[in-house]
Structure formats: structure tokens, C-alpha cells
Inverse folding.
């Protein structure tokens, strides 16, 4: 207290000195605000002066004021962090610092920094930074000014000589997976879904996320974008190839600002480290159309989750990063949506016995994870017996999209292309600000806290790909997980089932992809399906009859994240009852859910008949006795 | 009053503990079957298993007692005419206030129809419900030896059918126990104190 008071007094005295000349007509000294970098603030200055605390609180979730704009603290820091003459950052509580000068003046303590760093240190919250044997900011090669991500990568490769080659060998880079179980060639470069169709002809969109520097030369190590995964400062912005602008640029443009503050690649390169929820999430949280749109169990609420949302990643709990489970071997990550491990039987991984896929629950918890409870001796044993047929995720992910970020439930491309009365593209938002219609993509339905769908899975997935024949009269399963009750390796798994209505080749009865942007044929330029389908199908090397329609489709996305604490796991009743969550999962007799209807009918009939029988017998005895008494 | 102890202390203890356990097993069992939702599935299943083991323990004691004391002979069927006489009594004579064809004694605690009914429960419903119950409890191990998941449905069906049979027995048993005696609640008194008033006709199935 005494020290902060001293700072406040110092600040006031300093201010008095600076403004003394102009203060003749004003008895209260004004604070001195150092000039920020960049052109314009993300919100009007007056708004920020009044509301920056509330905006930050609303953004980080500590306040639920939803009408406020959302801005991360890192955006403030990007422009307002000051350095002294030696180049070191000035602490936020130093007199005369941007934040401090106002806060001293108004005698409001800066609560934020009881938690946040007072200077933008890299990896403050990451224990790994403290354990690393290398401080990248001390490497001469990283102290140079960098003009591009590729230049940084050159510098990285000078020490990490094999990293580029390693990475280019992975699915992460190739976006291709040859499924040994089905012979299908999968991966984002090959599959088609209802969100944005297929990749071919739409590669520019991929550059939003793809971990390269240019989307052109996949064969060159220097095109690997190291920073997109290894930045620990949160400042790195990956420019999109097709616009040259980053997501932050778009955000600023939408607020009327011209460009984002240029990122200091030298500073970022000096503060590289292990991947984090932020870096993985910068792509995986935003897959297929924005925050949470695709997966339902992966969205920005996992950046700093609390225990009820994710017991493993919780910042007030185990604080796992993605890579804690998705362990990498030479940049190749464990865990795959194309080759899921439906039932892990190798047991807990220990040195010498690392047979389990580390991304499975069982690799840490084993297959008998439920602890003995003396109050429920029969239940914990029964729960452990369930692990042979029921995936851990089925009970321990009670609902999806429950971090406050909604997920798309269905999309309808058949309604796309409508414009408003003024001829301009439409964007219709619901009460929560979610786009339920855009001219570009048609209708969309969003949902939160959804009950998953459940189905058997042995981990083998088969996709319906471009060129595969479909029956347009029934909803087409874009993918299908194999396995059933009779298959010992299959278990009941939770899925987000995504529904869609998307174009198909009505002449050839195959799925169709569309060229979405770029040139006159881009659907988002002319809103002309036939031309854009023809371009995309040509690019994909698929036949197109020239006639299109819209077909209903479904896709099953297995759920594995947002694992809740045990106290929030499903209860037995959720499945073992007449209104069972697994009502449509066949092949097993689930007590409480299943019964032989005729047996119950006969049984209760027999009970009722015996009750009526003894009642009639008793009444008759009473009547006869009364009759005898009356006769005397 | 000259009194004759019909039901010995262990017998009465066995009867009442068994009565409580069976009624609770029926309640928790049909709760598990989702016939009603008095308890959660977890609670019902938990209690059902514990109660079942308690009943099994009680039966181990009871079987031992029956063989040591020779009381198992109480369940040897009587000849057919005596059984038919009881049927005739319940169907006709009871309304006409005809005499009960059977007198209960320490040597013959059950009337012939009663004894036959108990024997039927003993050799019919009980082995079915215990056998299927054990398979049910350990079906995970049984599944590996070829019973399979779908087999559990048939096990459950038999278990449920036996439960219905026991519930039907209970309805009729309660009716006869509470109403067919010469003094009000005479059978209840006999099963609590062990004694019945001499010369009284009390009958129960």
C-alpha cells in the first residue's frame, strides 16, 4: 500500500512539474499520456477511456456484459507497451507509464496486473519457459530485423536443421492421410464436407491456417511457418495469402482502422517456445467458419478454461496444453480424427511400456479408472466394467459447446445467394449476434450445451468422397464410423452430428464442390452455382455433368475435448431409462432402457389379476358372512 | 391358555428379514427396470445388489438350519387329495363357513396347498431369479465365455419374469396371511410371537 501510494504521489508530482506551465488556469494537474504506436485505437478513444476495464473484463469472461466489444489485453499491449532508452519494457506500475499515469491521476489501482505481467514477458504462465535451457532472445541470429515469417524460419533452421523436413513429412503439413484400414485417401486436401465443400480451387482459404508461409512451395523447408505454432507472445499474426491481411487486420478494418500494428518479428522470434492452447487454438478453434463453428468441443473458451469446462486444460486445475495429450514425435502429433483409437487396451503408458496412443484417456487412466467408493461398492465396479463397451468420453463429456461459444448445428447452402432489397449481400444475426443467414453461405443454425449423439465406433471411418455415388433421396452420410455391438473393439462414442444441405451433381449423383472466391467464377462473386461448381470439380479432377441440385448431408464428429470433472459426468439414468440418451444404440441390452414389452405387459397383468382376484375373494367372503349373519 | 410354539425363533427372524429384503428387492428391481423412478438408477442398482447379497447370506443360514433341524421335511408335498381339499376349501367352503380341512401344528406348519406353493417358489422362481441374478452381476465375465451382449436380454427377461411371479406370490400371500384366520390378524401374531392360540384355526398360503 505504502509503495503504491508513493508511486501515486511521485506520478502526481512528476505531472505537476510537466504541466505546471499550462496549469495556471487549472488547479488540478492533468496526467501525461505517452503516445502509442500505430495509427488508431481499436475503439474510439473516448470509448476506451471510459470502458477499457469493462471491455477487458467482458473479453476474458470475468464479466458477462455482452453488449461490449471484445478486445484482448494483448491488443492494448501491442500499441501501448513502452520501452526505455535501453530498449527494456517499462513496468506498467512505473510512474508516467501509459496506464499508470491515468490510474494515478484518478486514484484507481490497476487490478489487472495483480494477475497479468507488468511487462510483456514471453511465456509468463508457461512453466516450460523457465525450464528451457535456451533463451532464444539471446541468440544473435534472432536479434536481426525480420521482414517476413520465411526469414524467421531461415534463422530457425540454422540450428533446428531437421525441423522443416520433419514437419513436411506430417499430416499436419500434407493434409493427406492414407487410411490403411479402408484404403481411402483422406485429409483436408481430399475430403469434402458441408461447411465449405472441398479444398480444390479454394486453397487460398486454407492459408488462414495452413502452417506454411506462402501456400505455394510445399517442398521447401523455409516455407514452414514456425512462428504460428511456436509464438509464445500472442502477438504473431499470420497473414492470409489471398488478402495479405491477418485476422487482426480484418478486425481493425471492421472498426474503421486501417491496419494492425506491424508485428515485431524479432521480438517474437526471441520468445519462441512450446506450443500452447493459444497457438493450436488459433487454427483448430476456428475451423470451418469461425470460433467453435465446426467441432463443438474445440473453441476459444478452451484458451483459458475453468475446471467445469475442461478438467485437464483448466487454468485453475491441471493446466494441460494440447500437446500434453497430443504428444509429438518429431513434429508428428498423436491423435487423429481419421484413425481414432476407439478402444485402447495397452494400458497406462510408463517408460518401457509406451504402447498406448498418448492421446487416449486410457494411456493415463487405464481401463479401470473408477476408484473404489465404500459408499457405492457395486457402482464403481460396474463403472469399471462399462469401459469395455462405453468410451470414457461418452459419460465424461456431458454436453458440447458449453464454454459460452456456440457451434454450428446445420448449414443450408441451398438458400445462399439471396440479397437484400438494396441488392447488397445480406447478413442476418440472431439475438446472440450469431449469423443465421449470410448471402455467401446461406442459412445456419447454431447451438450451445447440446446433448451429443451416440453410436458404436471401432475407430474406422469411411468417407463419402468426390466421385462416390450417392442416393440424393436420403440424407448422405459424409462419413460413417464402423463397428457395432458384436465387434469387441467397438465402443459407444459421443458425436456431434452436423447436418447440411449442399450442392451435388444431379446428373452424376455425386457430391459437388464449389469454387467459392477468386475470379468471376467464384461463387462469392457472381453467386452462380453452375460455373463455380464446374471450376471446382475441374480443379479436383472430378467429373461434373453440368446439372446440380442440393442434397441433405450428415457428418459425425467424434468428441474428445471439454472433458468435465467427474461430478458432472453423466448419471446412470441418462442412458438407463426410458428416455435414454443411447435410445438408438442397438445390439446391447441396457437395463432400464430395454425391456420385453410383452413380458412387462403379461407380468403386470398377472399382478393386477391376482390383486383383483384376492379382492373379489375377500369381498365375496364378507358378503357371504353378512348373508349368514342376517339369516341368523 | 395352552399354547404351542409353531414358529421357532430362527424361523421368525428368517421370515421377517426375508420379507423386508424381498419387498425392497422388488422395489429396487422394478426401479432399475424403469417401471417407476423412486430412486436414481445408480441408487436402485446399488441397493439391489447389496440387498441381494444380504438375502443370499440369509438363505445360506436358512438352508443350513433347515437341514440341521430336519425342518426341510415341511416342504415334502402331501398327497393329492389333501391338496385338492384345500383348493375346495378356498374355492367353496370358505364362503359357506365350512370347516378348515387342516389343522396347523408344529409338525405341520403349512397346509398342503401352502406347502406345495412354497415348494413351487423354491424350485421354480428362486433358482431362476438367483441364477439369472448372478449371471446379470457377472455378465461381463460371462460375455467373454460366449454369452455375449445380446444374451443379457434373455437373462434379464427371465429375471424379470421370476420377479413378477414373486410379486404375484406376495399379493396372494399377504391376502391370505392377513385375512384367513379365525381371530383378526391371528397369523401375523403367530409369526411375531411364535405361538398361536390352541384350537384356533389359522391357515395361510
Amino acid at each position: 500500500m505504502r509503495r503504491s501510494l508513493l508511486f501515486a504521489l511521485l506520478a502526481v508530482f512528476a505531472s505537476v512539474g510537466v504541466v505546471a506551465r499550462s496549469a495556471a488556469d487549472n488547479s488540478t494537474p492533468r496526467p501525461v499520456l505517452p503516445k502509442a504506436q500505430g495509427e488508431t485505437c481499436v475503439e474510439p478513444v473516448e470509448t476506451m477511456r471510459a470502458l477499457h476495464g469493462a471491455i477487458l473484463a467482458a473479453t476474458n469472461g470475468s464479466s458477462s456484459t455482452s453488449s461490449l466489444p471484445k478486445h484482448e489485453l494483448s491488443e492494448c499491449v501491442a500499441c501501448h507497451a513502452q520501452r526505455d532508452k535501453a530498449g527494456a519494457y517499462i513496468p506498467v506500475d512505473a510512474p508516467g507509464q501509459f496506464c499508470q499515469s491515468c490510474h494515478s491521476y484518478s486514484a484507481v489501482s490497476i487490478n489487472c496486473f495483480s494477475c497479468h505481467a507488468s511487462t510483456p514477458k514471453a511465456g509468463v504462465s508457461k512453466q516450460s519457459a523457465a525450464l528451457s535451457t535456451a533463451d532464444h532472445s539471446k541468440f544473435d541470429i534472432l536479434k536481426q530485423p525480420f521482414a517476413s515469417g520465411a526469414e524467421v524460419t531461415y534463422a530457425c533452421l540454422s540450428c533446428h536443421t531437421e525441423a522443416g523436413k520433419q514437419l513436411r513429412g506430417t499430416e499436419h503439413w500434407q493434409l493427406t492421410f492414407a487410411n490403411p484400414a479402408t484404403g481411402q485417401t483422406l485429409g483436408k486436401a481430399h475430403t469434402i464436407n458441408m461447411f465449405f465443400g472441398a479444398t480444390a480451387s479454394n486453397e487460398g482459404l486454407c492459408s488462414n491456417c495452413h502452417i506454411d508461409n506462402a501456400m505455394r512451395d510445399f517442398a521447401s523447408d523455409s516455407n514452414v511457418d514456425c512462428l504460428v505454432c511456436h509464438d509464445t507472445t500472442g502477438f504473431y499474426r499470420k497473414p492470409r495469402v489471398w488478402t495479405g491481411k491477418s485476422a487482426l487486420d480484418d478486425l481493425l478494418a471492421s472498426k474503421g482502422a486501417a491496419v494492425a500494428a506491424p508485428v515485431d518479428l524479432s521480438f517474437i522470434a526471441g520468445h519462441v517456445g512450446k506450443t500452447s492452447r493459444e497457438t493450436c487454438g488459433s487454427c483448430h478453434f476456428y475451423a470451418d467458419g469461425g470460433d467453435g463453428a465446426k467441432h463443438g468441443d474445440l473453441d476459444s473458451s478452451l484458451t483459458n478454461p475453468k475446471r467445469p469446462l475442461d478438467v485437464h486444460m483448466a487454468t485453475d486445475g491441471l493446466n494441460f496444453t494440447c500437446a500434453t495429450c497430443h504428444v509429438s514425435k518429431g513434429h508428428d502429433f498423436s491423435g487423429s480424427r481419421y484413425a481414432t483409437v476407439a478402444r485402447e487396451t495397452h494400458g497406462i503408458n510408463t517408460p518401457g511400456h509406451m504402447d498406448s496412443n498418448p492421446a487416449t484417456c486410457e494411456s493415463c487412466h487405464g481401463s479401470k479408472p473408477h476408484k473404489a467408493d465404500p459408499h457405492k461398492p457395486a457402482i464403481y465396479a460396474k463403472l469399471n466394467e462399462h469401459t469395455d463397451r462405453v468410451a470414457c468420453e461418452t459419460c465424461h463429456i456431458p454436453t458440447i459447446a458449453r464454454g459460452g461459444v456456440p457451434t454450428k448445428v446445420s448449414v443450408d447452402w441451398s438458400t445462399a445467394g439471396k440479397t437484400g432489397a438494396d441488392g447488397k449481400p445480406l447478413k442476418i444475426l440472431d439475438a446472440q449476434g450469431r449469423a443465421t443467414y449470410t448471402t455467401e453461405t446461406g442459412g445456419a443454425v447454431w447451438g450451445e450445451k447440446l446433448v451429443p449423439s451416440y453410436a458404436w465406433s471401432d475407430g474406422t471411418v469411411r468417407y463419402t468422397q468426390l466421385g462416390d455415388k450417392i442416393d440424393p433421396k436420403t440424407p448422405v452420410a459424409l462419413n460413417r464410423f464402423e463397428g457395432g455391438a458384436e465387434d469387441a473393439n467397438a465402443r459407444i462414442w459421443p458425436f456431434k452430428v452436423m447436418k447440411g444441405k449442399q450442392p451435388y451433381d444431379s446428373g452424376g449423383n455425386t457430391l459437388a464442390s464449389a469454387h467459392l472466391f477468386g475470379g468471376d467464377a467464384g461463387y462469392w462473386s457472381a453467386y452462380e452455382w453452375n460455373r463455380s461448381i464446374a471450376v471446382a470439380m475441374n480443379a479436383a479432377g472430378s467429373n461434373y455433368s453440368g446439372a446440380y441440385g442440393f442434397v441433405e448431408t450428415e457428418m459425425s464428429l467424434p468428441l474428445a475435448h471439454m472433458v468435465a470433472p467427474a461430478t458432472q459426468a453423466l448419471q446412470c439414468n441418462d442412458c438407463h431409462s426410458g428416455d435414454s440418451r443411447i435410445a438408438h444404440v442397438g445390439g446391447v441390452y441396457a437395463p432400464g432402457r430395454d425391456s420385453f414389452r410383452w413380458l412387462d405387459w403379461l407380468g403386470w397383468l398377472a399382478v393386477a389379476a391376482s390383486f383383483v382376484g384376492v379382492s373379489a375373494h375377500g369381498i365375496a367372503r364378507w358378503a357371504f358372512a353378512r348373508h349368514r349373519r342376517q339369516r341368523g | 391358555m395352552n399354547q404351542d410354539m409353531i414358529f421357532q425363533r430362527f424361523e421368525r427372524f428368517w421370515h421377517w428379514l426375508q420379507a423386508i429384503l424381498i419387498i425392497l428387492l422388488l422395489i429396487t428391481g422394478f426401479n432399475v427396470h424403469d417401471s417407476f423412478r423412486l430412486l436414481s438408477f445408480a441408487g436402485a442398482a446399488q441397493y439391489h445388489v447389496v440387498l441381494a447379497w444380504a438375502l443370499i447370506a440369509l438363505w445360506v443360514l436358512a438352508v443350513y438350519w433347515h437341514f440341521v433341524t430336519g425342518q426341510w421335511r415341511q416342504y415334502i408335498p402331501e398327497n393329492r387329495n389333501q391338496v385338492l381339499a384345500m383348493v375346495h376349501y378356498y374355492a367353496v367352503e370358505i364362503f359357506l363357513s365350512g370347516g378348515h380341512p387342516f389343522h396347523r401344528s408344529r409338525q405341520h406348519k403349512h397346509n398342503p396347498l401352502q406347502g406345495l406353493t412354497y415348494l413351487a417358489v423354491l424350485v421354480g422362481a428362486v433358482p431362476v431369479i438367483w441364477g439369472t441374478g448372478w449371471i446379470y452381476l457377472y455378465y461381463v465375465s460371462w460375455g467373454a465365455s460366449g454369452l455375449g451382449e445380446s444374451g443379457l436380454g434373455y437373462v434379464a427377461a427371465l429375471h424379470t419374469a421370476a420377479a413378477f411371479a414373486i410379486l404375484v406370490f406376495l399379493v396372494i400371500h399377504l391376502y391370505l396371511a392377513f385375512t384367513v384366520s379365525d381371530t383378526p390378524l391371528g397369523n401375523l401374531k403367530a409369526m411375531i410371537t411364535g405361538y398361536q392360540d390352541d384350537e384356533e384355526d389359522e391357515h395361510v398360503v
About this structure: Chain B has a mean pLDDT of 87.
